Write the structure tokens for this entry.
Amino acid sequence: MNASNSPDDSNEEEIIQYGLSDEVVQELQDAVEAGDADFLHAKLDDWHSADIADLIEQLKPKLRSTFLDIMADKIEPDVYSDLDENVRDDLVEDMEPAEIAAVITELEVDDAVDVLEDMEEEEQQEVLKELSAEDRAAVEEGLSFEEDSAGRLMQRDLIAVPEYWNIGQTIDFLRDTDDLPNEFYEIFVVDPRHHPIGTIPLNRAMRSKRDVAVRDIMDTEQKLIPVDMDQEEVAYLFQQYSLASAAVVNANGMLIGVITVDDIVDVISEEAEEDLLLLAGVSEDDLFENVLSTARTRFPWLLINLFTATAASVAISMFDATMEAIIALAVLMPIVASLGGNAGTQTLTVAVRALATKELTAANMWRILGKEMIVAALNGSFFAVMIGLIAWGWFGDPIIGLVIAAAMVTNILVAGTAGMLVPVTLDKLNIDPAVASSVFVTTTTDIIGFVAFLGLATIVLL
Amino acid sequence: MNASNSPDDSNEEEIIQYGLSDEVVQELQDAVEAGDADFLHAKLDDWHSADIADLIEQLKPKLRSTFLDIMADKIEPDVYSDLDENVRDDLVEDMEPAEIAAVITELEVDDAVDVLEDMEEEEQQEVLKELSAEDRAAVEEGLSFEEDSAGRLMQRDLIAVPEYWNIGQTIDFLRDTDDLPNEFYEIFVVDPRHHPIGTIPLNRAMRSKRDVAVRDIMDTEQKLIPVDMDQEEVAYLFQQYSLASAAVVNANGMLIGVITVDDIVDVISEEAEEDLLLLAGVSEDDLFENVLSTARTRFPWLLINLFTATAASVAISMFDATMEAIIALAVLMPIVASLGGNAGTQTLTVAVRALATKELTAANMWRILGKEMIVAALNGSFFAVMIGLIAWGWFGDPIIGLVIAAAMVTNILVAGTAGMLVPVTLDKLNIDPAVASSVFVTTTTDIIGFVAFLGLATIVLL
């Protein structure tokens, strides 16, 4: 945090221009290529670490280390915690353990753990060796918590005061202590066992007279976060109760850390991104991954899809005689499967999202399934009539129209059912519905679509 | 905010149990059905408004008004702002303008605007008439800002002090003023024209001695938010710079409001949800919408899909003679389209997300397209060999295997290209890539998949 008076208040327009423009990135990339240190130092002097991190991500990979060399000690360590994980891991790989340790020493513990957690065990140990005993203990404790748990998110620096203090003592304590957290929004009140018993928002503390007892103005209805709580659950708490910060407690109920809402902003983003990508069959954000890793993260879903598509083809092949007799069926069959797949994807996406936000529960599941059935019947009927007329007009046979219409209604109803039941069932089985729902639902609508259409045609038309 | 000492500190286990369990919802729903007011009043006495809102959402729709009647004045107005939009609109429809006005009076302006904005013009006017002149002016001003803009998100209540004050004066002002915002994290410093020139985080103010000038400890590097900035952009700012709160300025640069990070948490969630749903062809979260509205929101995408699927069928029909000659082609053709569609969806989802987070830009677009091509070539080659062998083994004809393999490589390369170029192009045209990318990409991979496979087969096999 910068408390000095920056002289650079002149360019108001630039203040409103957030993020990097393509021109600026191009200009800076050219400067890196030309090795123009003076230009880069001058230009990036007052940049926020997050913008510098973005710039590094935008640079051609081979220029990134060059850039870091040019900037050297003008780079704040925070840049490393703001970087995309893949880009950071690439850069850190090229650094000496002592260099990494120098960066980590300057970071908050949660950010330091972020940088270290993806390293190989051996290299991690070498970096840890370079840290001071105190830092090493803090980082090792951080690493001891499970990934994506509250323990990894929390900061250990916090303000806790005993319940018998008053506001004056609290303020004096804050003024006299040098080693305070950078940012905090509330003061925790603890009992002699160091259990949190209340909180005082800073603004309330500021408005209170010095002789007011902290006990008398604290909120006792605080939401405590067990240190092993999953970060998705932590994010839910912050959203649900509009929290600014919350105390983290260990298994004995002792106050051991604090999570603030700005850490949660990133978690919410990450979790929503994860669901978005998983639904599309991508296991993680791979924009900045190298080619091989990207191909690998995309591979499993395509492989599963190869099997499910082949299964659908096997279903089709049972009706090859029917198709040979009436080739129009082969022409029309993808329409039924395609619309079914889309209707199913709509339902399952709403369901996956509603499960994530805890809006879809056992209490309303059957009611919402019922609603989905009616929606499917409405849209299904409309599209059945449409496709029936198209098929009749196209191939001049009303029976083909009737067959495809019947198959369409069936498949859209199946889509609505599968779109609800598959994610709900996976969720009950403690499988992330975002991962596996799509493949189950679209395989179902493909196979049902083909079989309903070709099967009905076999019965009616042959 | 509750500053009293709650006697209910005994059940520590329940504190850790967040969110509503299915059993609790069932129990409470039964109580509503039985009209058991005493039970409900006792049980819900210390519930947070967000949990009561969740309970209302979980209740059968016909029980919701009953519940509100039973709870009557025991319901905090905040419950209304915590409710899902669809559920709230249903409930508000049944209320008298005076009742709605009574609720709105108790809400913060941004929440009041939320409740009012979806009402019909005429009803909105009737409610506004019931408000006090001051509240009406504030709400009308709120409504005058564009939906989803910073003006709708901001709170007008904030602490601004002149630059010539010192910390002592600031603290005395806070202590002596009754009508302060409920929650605030920083103090704004303004010049005589009421332009914001700096901010002081509360924790810094608390640690400073009374005689320190605010000018000397303020941060001047603040991020200002123009009142008409889109909320997605505002969310980006908060995330990028880890802001706790930020000043909102009007066109003249005057400080007119403040946005705090807890409002942003909801925006980030909403925007991510919007992208997720749009990619699946659902225009808004419709879990709590009624049947007709839900069918309507799902309809357009299915209609577009009907046309694109029919277009794909037309493409297939050009090769009906080929399929009649070799029915195996009809059996196999969905596999090529299906894998192409999936590969395309993977790429486009990563691209849509990266555009939203400003990680994919003009500066790195060609590089990342190049990467996608290599990924497609790698995975495409593998799956080409796989499906080639499957087809050969299945139909005993190596030429069919070669044809499907060639079509598969082609289609996965096309999928990678379209998956990148379609969202980037839409974004350049200022069309939300989340809305329209899927349909373009999957139509492309369907048609190319069918045409490449059947066309090649016509050339090679006939």
User: Anything to note?
Assistant: Residues 1-16 of chain B have pLDDT under 50 and may be disordered. Chain B has three domains: 17-148, 160-279, 291-461. The first helix of chain B runs from residue 12 to 16.
